[in-house]
């Protein structure tokens, strides 16, 4: 290893080398996924807590590198943003989601069944609404079947423009979910400014809900959750607790009056075929 000498002029060490290497790998994963159509979507059910009926499913992208195996989706999405490939990748993901939405709704036997797609910053562009409109027409999928999940980071930047894009989407009949609500700085601001239909709360809060309120951090998180519930109720919006893994977390979400839940306790994200079978088996008769 190089010694960190006093006169060292180039700040190039193992950490940076590793970072550059990692970025190259991630960019290659994205490029390969685009060139070979080599990305997969998994779908995780979202349940209405009162009835335990499946309301919809969240689409989550999966990447597999031939040598490294599965690569975390958030890292790949970030790499796609940084290397200018997000527009193409985002279109591919939305194409998969819209195609799956029709099949899943049929399997669920529920005309209200929806599929949610996560949007990243680079996807919130002026042509997004017309892009999705074309996909819906091609697959004969009604707009209410698609929910777009947006986070603060996806909207960060030109807020006026983001507001216009979201208004266009909402005008088409698509619904919007605010993802990871309460984790950022301006969640409250966004709920007043954008046409939000569903509010989703991150797993970090789900974990805190089920903990004994011994330390100040847990107490603060629990207070934030209570105020989010009050807000969602005042606005009449469905509220989803993400990442429910245990019966205790489920009980806490119910006690706090979350309307919906999602997590490994109910089901892991799975391929469209598997979720179709899962939904068909649970269909109310
Ligand atoms: P997210 O949108 O908050 O998605 C929820 C994450 O929680 C998913 O991780 C899901 O697999 C995981 N999860 C669900 N239930 C549980 C549970 O009970 N316990 C635990 N520990 N985790 C649970 P995943 O699939 O690894 O995705 C991570 C992030 O990557 C997502 O966070 C999202 O920000 C991003 N992402 C995934 N797919 C896409 C995509 O198609 N487009 C965009 N733009 N971002 C995506
Ligand atoms: Ca999400
Ligand atoms: Ca989330
Ligand atoms: Ca999250």
Task: Characterise this structure.
This protein is α/β, with parallel strands linked by helices and 285 residues long. The chain is 49% helix and 19% strand. It has an eight-stranded mixed beta barrel with strand order 1-2-4-5-6-7-8-9, surrounded by seven helices. α3 packs parallel to α11 (272-282). The longest helix is centred in the N-terminal third of the chain and has 23 residues, at 14-36. Mean pLDDT is 91; it is low at 1-5. It binds ligand C2E and calcium ion (3 copies). Residues 23-283 form the EAL domain.
Query: Which range best describes the helical content: under 10%, 10-25%, 25-40%, 40-55%, 55-70% or over 70%?
Result: 40-55%
Radius of gyration: 20 Å
Number of H/I helices: 11
The shape is globular
Got a strand count? 10
Bound molecules: ligand C2E, calcium ion
H-E order: HEEEHHEHEHHEHEHHEHEEH
Tell me the β content. 15-25%
* Average pLDDT reading: 91
Regions with pLDDT < 50 over 5+ consecutive residues? 1-5
Report the structural category: alpha/beta
Largest sheet: 8 strands, mixed, barrel
Terminal CA distance reads 67 Å
Strand order of the largest sheet: 1-2-4-5-6-7-8-9
Summarize the structure.
By secondary structure, the protein is α/β, with parallel strands linked by helices.
Keywords:
285 residues; alpha/beta; 11 helices; 19% strand; globular; binds ligand C2E; binds calcium ion
List the SSEs and their pairings:
Layout lengths: L13 H23 L2 E10 L5 E12 L3 E3 L1 H10 L3 H23 L5 E5 L9 H12 L6 E5 L1 H4 L3 H14 L2 E7 L5 H7 L4 E4 L1 H7 L6 H20 L3 E3 L5 H9 L4 E2 L8 E2 H11 L3
Parallel strand pairs: 2-4, 4-5, 5-6, 6-7, 7-8, 8-9
Antiparallel strand pairs: 1-2, 1-9, 1-10, 2-3
Helix pairs in contact: 1-2, 3-4, 3-11
Bound molecules: ligand C2E and calcium ion (3 copies).
């Amino acid at each position: 290893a190089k010694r960190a000498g006093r006169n060292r002029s180039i700040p190039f060490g193992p950490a940076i080398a590793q970072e550059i290497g990692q970025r190259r790998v991630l960019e290659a994963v994205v490029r390969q996924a685009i060139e070979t159509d080599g990305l997969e979507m998994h779908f995780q059910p979202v349940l209405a807590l009162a009835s335990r009926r499946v309301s919809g499913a969240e689409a989550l992208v999966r990447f597999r590198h031939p040598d490294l195996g599965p690569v975390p989706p958030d890292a790949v999405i970030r790499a796609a943003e940084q290397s200018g490939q997000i527009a193409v990748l985002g279109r591919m993901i939305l194409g998969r989601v819209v195609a799956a939405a029709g099949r899943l709704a049929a399997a669920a036997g529920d005309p209200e069944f929806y599929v949610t797609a996560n949007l990243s910053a680079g996807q919130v562009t002026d042509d997004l609404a017309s892009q999705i409109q074309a996909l819906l027409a091609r697959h004969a999928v009604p707009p209410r079947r698609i929910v777009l999940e947006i986070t603060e980071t996806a909207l960060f930047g030109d807020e006026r423009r983001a507001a216009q894009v979201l208004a266009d989407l909402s005008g088409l009949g698509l619904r919007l979910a605010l993802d990871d609500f309460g984790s950022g700085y301006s969640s409250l601001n966004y709920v007043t400014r954008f046409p939000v239909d569903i509010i989703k709360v991150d797993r970090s809060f789900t974990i805190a809900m089920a903990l004994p309120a011994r330390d100040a951090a847990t107490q603060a998180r629990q207070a934030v959750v209570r105020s989010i519930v009050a807000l969602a109720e005042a606005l009449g919006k469905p509220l989803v607790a993400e990442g429910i893994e245990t019966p205790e977390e489920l009980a806490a979400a119910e006690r706090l009056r979350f309307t919906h839940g999602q997590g490994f306790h109910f089901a892991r994200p799975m391929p469209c075929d598997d979720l179709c079978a899962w939904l068909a088996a649970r269909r109310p008769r």
